[in-house]
Design a protein that fits this description.
This protein has 348 residues and is of the alpha/beta class. Helix content is 38%, strand content 23%. Bound molecules: NADP nicotinamide-adenine-dinucleotide phosphate.
């Protein structure tokens, strides 16, 4: 059976969840014909650890945050990302660190180092895909590897690969989505009578919203996802800054009540649409949807994407758009895509 060696870059919520899934059931992928071995981990807090024979995941998962890999065989207190990505015996770099929406760092450097040294990359980071998707896909192709990023748009709920693989025979004219669970939760609670501020406080208490919810409510999180959908599925070449963006902060309790009285529901809609002249325009803005719209009934922190197609009409997918384990599943689906790539290349 083929064994893929993984290097986990970033050891926070998502990569720990992936490590836990592998540790709990190492034979989980046996039916697919491969097994996974983690040979390296780097993290700002823990430092780096490289063990070519395989890291004991239960041991590292039991280490409290604040402790260091220094002192373990192959361990160091510095993250040493570049060295680990380029020189460790990993076949697949699992990138789940932080990303700046302005320059995509540090994640984009991690991805470039990996692809440039002929290693596959799977990532849940939006930034590198939204800002440099084409360049990185091209770099992967030139180096005979693949760059996979299903989790960048809707966490573990398949959207990108689903559309590329299964909707390929359809003409796609638009993609609309509810792509931020926090803002959808807040708008839903406003329909139950809460003010914007109270709904935000509740979302924070439940762990849906960050202490600083600006990126969620202001639309900048969705803007990156819309740029990815426009570029990946509608063949556009947009930078996130070209996606006209308005958040939900301007929506008042009166707006929500007025809409409800007319059978409408406010949603933060990310949209990419091909005009009759072939140009793709993209936006993020609050829209009061009529009840018959495919996205009007999406409630709570759930995410959804509706594809406008020629033969099926509107085709809609909904599911979780966040969560550690859910997002770790996106990495698993990416690793399965890597395995399929290797099989097509006759390397396994
Ligand atoms: N969690 C979700 O529901 C979800 C859903 C979709 C996409 N994502 C994306 O997936 C990625 C990971 O999410 P997460 O929830 O796991 O975040 P997280 O818990 O904050 O984990 C990120 C980890 O990466 C570390 N890190 C940051 N910069 C690093 C660097 N330069 N070198 C090495 N390690 C570094 C962080 O260390 P420090 O804590 O010390 O900074 C942290 O341990 C993010 O890009 C996120 O946007 C997450």
């Amino acid at each position: 059976m083929k064994t893929y060696n993984l290097a986990l870059i970033g050891f926070g919520g998502v990569n720990r969840a992936l490590a836990q899934l592998i540790a709990d059931d190492p034979s989980r992928f046996a039916a697919l014909g491969f097994e996974l071995r983690v040979v390296a981990i780097t993290d700002l807090a823990f430092g780096s650890l490289v063990q070519g024979g395989g890291i004991n995941l239960a041991d590292v998962l039991s280490m409290p945050r604040g402790s260091s890999f220094e002192g373990l065989a192959g361990g160091s207190s510095d993250p040493r990302n570049e060295q680990v990505i380029k020189d460790s015996p990993a076949d697949i770099i699992v990138e789940a660190t932080f990303t700046s929406p302005v320059d995509g760092e540090p994640a984009v450097s991690h991805v470039r180092w990996a692809l440039g040294t002929g290693k596959h990359v799977v990532t849940t980071n939006k930034g590198p895909v939204a800002l440099f998707g084409r360049e990185l896909t091209d770099l992967a192709r030139r180096n005979g590897v693949t760059f996979e990023y299903e989790g960048a748009v809707m966490s573990g709920t398949p959207v990108i690969r689903l559309a590329k693989k299964l909707l390929g025979g359809l003409e796609l004219s638009a993609v609309q989505g509810i792509l931020n669970g926090t803002s959808n939760y807040v708008l839903g609670r406003m329909e139950n009578g809460l003010t914007l501020d109270k709904a935000i406080a509740e979302a924070q208490a439940l762990g849906y919203a960050e202490a600083d919810p600006t990126a969620d409510l202001g639309g900048s999180d969705v803007r990156l996802k819309v740029a990815i959908l426009a570029n990946e599925l509608l063949g556009a070449n947009l930078q996130p800054t070209e996606v006209e963006t308005t958040g939900i902060q301007g929506i008042s309790s009166d707006d929500v009540a007025d809409a409800l009285a007319h059978g409408k529901h406010w949603k933060l809609i990310g949209e990419a649409r091909r005009d009759s002249d072939g140009r793709v325009a993209a936006s993020v803005r609050p829209v009061a949807l009529t009840a018959d719209h495919p996205l009007a009934g999406i409630t709570g922190a759930t995410n959804a994407v509706s594809f406008s197609t020629d033969l099926l009409g509107a085709y809609t997918v909904s599911g979780p758009g966040a969560g550690r384990v859910e997002t770790a599943y996106a990495l698993i689906s990416d690793i399965i895509a890597v395995d399929q790539f290797e099989k097509v290349a006759n390397r396994v």
